[in-house]
Structures are given as structure tokens and as C-alpha cells.
Design a protein that fits this description.
Number of helices: 5
Shape: globular
Largest sheet: 4 strands, antiparallel
Strand order of the largest sheet: 3-4-5-6
Number of strands: 6
Distance between the termini: 40 Å
Strand content: 5-15%
Radius of gyration: 15 Å
Oligomer: single chain
Helix content: 40-55%
Low-confidence stretches: 1-18, 151-172
Mean pLDDT: 78
């Protein structure tokens, strides 16, 4: 099924006009992988509970990646996934009704935030990846503020990277 979306000018989240995604709880392997990815972000001077710290890390890594010649760039997927998980964790801290879920029958594994009714309401991994590739550097704190007030349904989703470790720790 093709999902129709229209981008909100206020955020990177998408408004969806089709049926809700089927989501399920992450399995133990996925939960462990999410924690491994969080470890990429645990560097001196970064408190993952402070949005500005996560945004500063995103800006630093994104700028370094774009400043690196294309043939020498690291694979950004583990870094993007880790940053997306951190942003989702921050959203969950503001909105206790949200929980991490995976989109059912989706390969590769796709993480979303869902509400208490099992409706996917945010796809922070997708937003981080979109901002990274387009060099949009100031959005995390704005996005969190908007999600806290008016969540919207996610229309596209980024996969959970499960196989690689990034060299990102060395560039922070």
C-alpha cells in the first residue's frame, strides 16, 4: 500500500492520511541493539537527557561528515540511528504515553514512537536522517517542543541499523 503524506512546514514529521501502521514491541535483541547505539553517544560533555547536548552532538557530527571528502566519509547510519534513538528518548521523557515500537513485518527493522493506542506518532530516526543529508542543523529542540504540544502521525520511517558500529565516537 502506498501511503500518502504531506510534509508539515513546522517539522520534519509527516502527516499521514492512510491507515495506521501495525506496530509491535521491540524484541530483546532490538532492545539490546538500541542500548548499544546509545553508547555511541555517551561521550564526555554530553548528557543524553538534555536536548541541547544531543543537538550539539548532531551538529558536530553532521558538519564533520559533510566537511569530509565523500570518499573518506564514514557510514553515517549507526550515528544517525543512535541520534534518532536519543531524540526519541527525549520525546518519551516529555511524553510518558509514548513508547518505542517496531513496524510489524518491515525489513529492515523500523523504529517508531507509538502512543498508548499503538498508533505510530513519530519517526525520529527518519527526521534525523533527513536533517543530516540536507544539513538542517537546528531542529531537535524545536521538534521536541512541537511533539510535546501536538504530535502527528509519521508517514515514513528509517530502519534500525543492526549490524555495524560507527567510527563516530572518534570524531566527537
Amino acid at each position: 500500500m502506498t501511503q500518502r503524506t504531506e510534509q508539515s512546514p513546522e517539522s520534519g514529521f509527516r502527516h499521514s492520511s492512510d491507515t495506521a501502521l501495525q506496530v509491535e514491541e521491540p524484541d530483546p535483541f532490538q532492545l539490546v541493539r538500541m542500548e548499544e547505539l546509545r553508547e555511541l553517544l555517551r561521550v564526555p560533555g554530553v548528557d543524553l537527557t538534555i536536548p541541547e547536548h544531543v543537538e550539539r552532538l548532531f551538529v558536530d557530527w553532521c558538519c564533520r561528515w559533510h566537511a569530509t571528502p565523500p570518499t573518506e566519509r564514514w557510514n553515517p547510519m549507526p550515528s544517525l540511528t543512535a541520534l534518532g534513538i536519543a531524540v526519541g528518548d527525549l520525546a518519551r521523557a516529555q511524553r510518558p504515553d509514548l513508547r518505542w515500537c517496531v513496524v510489524a513485518d518491515c525489513s529492515p527493522t523500523t523504529l517508531v514512537l507509538a502512543d498508548a493506542h499503538g498508533r505510530a506518532v513519530a519517526s525520529p530516526l527518519t527526521d534525523i536522517a533527513t536533517w543530516w543529508m540536507s544539513r538542517e542543523l537546528a531542529g531537535i529542540t524545536v521538534l521536541l517542543a512541537r511533539l510535546a504540544v501536538a504530535p502527528v502521525t509519521a508517514g515514513r520511517h528509517a530502519p534500525l541499523q543492526v549490524r555495524e558500529r560507527s567510527g563516530a565516537r572518534s570524531v566527537a
